[in-house]
Amino acid sequence: MSQVQGSCESFCPDGESKMRIREKLLHYFELKNGQKNMPGILVKEFTRSAADAKMPKAKDMRTEASLAKTVEYLLKDIMSDNRRPYHMVYDFIFDRLRAVRREIVIQMYDARQTIRLLEPIVMFLAYSRYLLCEESIEKFDPKICNQHLQECLTGVLCCYEELDKQVAFKDSTLRELERRCFIECLYQVFNLGSSESFTRALTLPDYVRKDPTFELCFGICLAYHQGNLYNVLMGLPKLPHILCAVASIKLQAMRRSLLLIFTHAYNNKQLTVPVPYLLRLLLLDKPDSLLDQCRHYSISFTADRKAVHFNKTDFNNTVETLRSQHERFVESKLAKIYLPEVLLLKKFN
Fold it and tell me: Is the pTM of this model over 0.70?
């Protein structure tokens, strides 16, 4: 297949802009001040390729600089637009970033070009996976988000490996090395418990493995593989913002595992476990949250509700694990960041 190099310098090719304005196919975020039929800034939308489709023309493909500006516009201007619920923001950005990913493939960008465009997309998907975890399936499908996040992560990691083989990372800037370290961390926490990601961690270059944040992530992954959930849970709040958010998605499953362990370890009518200790261990912020957990799995509180009485025969193993939720310790971290700066990997802590 011959390589096509885009020549369009705008967010949306002229032909598509005219067609969508004429057919009134503008998204809310493409309308000027939200006014109906008043075109604002249009961004090329994602379209699936038909089996017999012709190769797109250069004028319908954006340049690398234009794609980079498109990603920045979406993750800065649109992400900061609070006029609509976030699931609508997510749907719009998700679609427009798929169009960017498609052009990366069609234009056959090299590893370094692909990395620059894919890394912020990975960050957007990771952030959205946490922020929308409480939404209904009608508004957000976590499986689709997981699939695309994994695909983008895999794409970026393959590019890193390609540059490693070319010894090209020796010419990388400090910022590029920092970005790689953060994405490698994200891959580890997103795939917590995966033998494949754990094996990868052992083969990474020294500058990645010796990065303080990566060392923390690897320690958490190692503890998880060893079945040491205590060290995993004590390590999670130490992770920076997005990493902490992604890791917390698996928190409900870990809480269930720990409660099940306790039903065997403290299976005695005379033994109880104090509520404050369980709150700290399970990273819960209030007794009512622990009460919800215990009710769900049929675990009993003492009469004064100051301790929990575990009985292995009472634990309800048939119920589904509680859904992921927004965690207080994660929210406090996210509240302190300027989101576009983090998503565009201009700041890491």
Answer: yes
